[in-house]
Design goal:
Elements: H1 8-32, H2 38-59, H3 71-95, H4 100-106, H5 109-121, H6 128-144, H7 149-154, H8 158-183, H9 189-204, H10 218-244, H11 247-254, H12 257-271, H13 283-319
Length: about 325
C-alpha cells in the first residue's frame, strides 16, 4: 500500500497547480475552438503529450512492450484508449456549446461515475458520508440549472445537447479510469498514459485537419500550445501530489476546480471583454455551484474522515480503564 511522504505543503501546492491548470483549460480551449474543430484540437493535445512522454521513456530505456500484456489486459487497453479518446472529443464538443464554468461543473459527475463503477467492478464501499455528499451535489446541480431547467427537460437546444455531450464525456472518462486502474497493475502511470495518448492520436488522426493550425491567430496558436502542455503538466503535478499528500485531500482540492474556472472567467471578462464572455448566472446558480463543489469534496474526504474518527475512538477506548466492581 502506498504511503505519502508527509510533505503535505508540497503536495498541496502541486494539487493546487493541477486545479489551476484544469480550471483555466476550458477557457483556453473555448478560444481555440473559434478556429479549430474538436477532433483536430484533441489530436494536437494527445499527440503532443504522447510524444513528450515517449521521448522521456525512451531516454530512460523504459519503453513498454505491448506483447508482454495478456490478452485480457490488451482488451482493457483498448477500452482505456477508446474511453479517453471519446472523453477528450466529447468534452471539447460539449464545451463549444457551453460556458467554461458550466462545463467544468458538469464534469464533476465523472469521478462519481468512476466511484459507482468501482463499487460494481472492484467491490469498493460507498459510505454514509459519501451518500450525504452525493445528495449535496445533486441539490447543487438543481440549483445551478434553476434558470434553465425547463429548457433542459423540454427542448433539444444547443445548450441541452452540450449537457448531453458532457455527460457522455464523463461516462467515457469513468470507463477509461476503470480500465487504467487495472493497467496500473502491470505498467507505471507514465507508461500507461504514453501508450494511451499515442494510440488516441493515431485513432483520431483520420478525423483531424492539422492544416487548420495555419489559420489560427497568434493568440489562438499560443493558447493551443498551452492546451497541449496543460494536460501533460497538470497530470504530472497530480501524480506527484499523490506521492506527498493523502489521495482524499488531493481529490478534495481538485474538486474546487470549477470555482477557479468561474473566478478566472470573471477576471478574464473584465480584462479581455472581447475575448472572454462572462457567466450569466443568478445567485441561486452560484449557490448551487458551491454545493456541487462541497458535495464532490465531501465524497472524496468522507472515507478518510470516517476512518480517522474510528481510529480516534479506538484509541480513546484503549486508554480508558475498565470499570471496577
Amino acid at each position: 500500500m502506498h504511503v505519502s511522504s508527509g510533505r503535505w505543503l508540497y503536495g498541496f501546492v502541486l494539487a493546487l497547480t493541477t486545479t489551476t491548470l484544469w480550471g483555466v483549460l476550458p477557457i483556453m480551449l473555448k478560444e481555440v475552438l473559434q478556429g479549430m474543430d474538436a477532433f483536430t484540437v484533441t489530436w494536437f493535445r494527445m499527440g503532443t503529450a504522447g510524444l513528450v512522454l515517449f521521448i522521456w521513456l525512451a531516454a530512460q530505456g523504459r519503453l513498454p512492450s505491448i506483447r508482454a500484456l495478456s490478452v485480457t489486459n490488451r482488451w482493457i487497453l483498448v477500452v482505456a484508449v477508446l474511453g479517453l479518446a471519446f472523453n477528450y472529443v466529447l468534452y471539447v464538443m460539449g464545451l463549444s456549446r457551453l460556458t467554461p464554468g458550466t462545463m467544468q461543473l458538469m464534469i464533476q459527475i465523472a469521478p462519481i461515475m468512476l466511484m459507482v463503477g468501482s463499487m460494481v467492478i472492484f467491490k469498493e464501499r460507498f459510505g454514509v458520508g459519501q451518500v450525504i455528499g452525493l445528495i449535496t451535489l445533486s441539490l447543487g446541480f438543481v440549483l445551478f440549472f434553476n434558470q434553465r431547467l425547463e429548457e433542459l427537460f423540454t427542448q433539444l437546444s444547443s445548450y441541452t445537447l452540450g449537457i448531453i455531450l458532457t455527460l457522455g464525456a464523463a461516462f467515457t472518462w469513468a470507463l477509461y479510469g476503470l480500465a487504467q486502474k487495472q493497467l496500473l497493475t502491470v505498467w507505471s502511470s507514465v507508461t500507461v498514459m504514453m501508450v494511451i495518448y499515442l494510440a488516441c492520436a493515431v485513432l483520431i488522426f483520420p478525423l483531424a485537419s492539422p492544416l487548420q493550425v495555419l489559420e489560427l491567430s497568434t493568440l489562438q496558436l499560443w493558447l493551443l500550445l498551452g492546451c497541449c502542455l496543460n494536460t501533460l503538466i497538470a497530470y504530472g503535478a497530480f501524480a506527484e501530489a499523490l506521492s506527498h499528500w493523502e489521495a482524499s485531500r488531493v481529490s478534495a482540492t481538485i474538486a474546487t476546480t470549477p470555482l477557479f474556472t468561474f473566478s478566472m472567467v470573471a477576471l478574464g471578462a473584465m480584462i479581455w471583454p472581447g475575448v472572454i464572455q462572462p457567466e450569466l448566472l443568478n445567485s441561486l446558480a452560484y449557490l448551487g455551484a458551491l454545493l456541487v463543489v462541497g458535495g464532490s469534496a465531501l465524497i472524496a474526504l468522507a472515507p478518510s474522515l470516517i476512518q480517522k474518527l474510528k481510529n480516534r475512538r479506538l484509541r480513546r477506548l484503549a486508554v480508558t480503564p475498565p470499570p471496577t466492581s
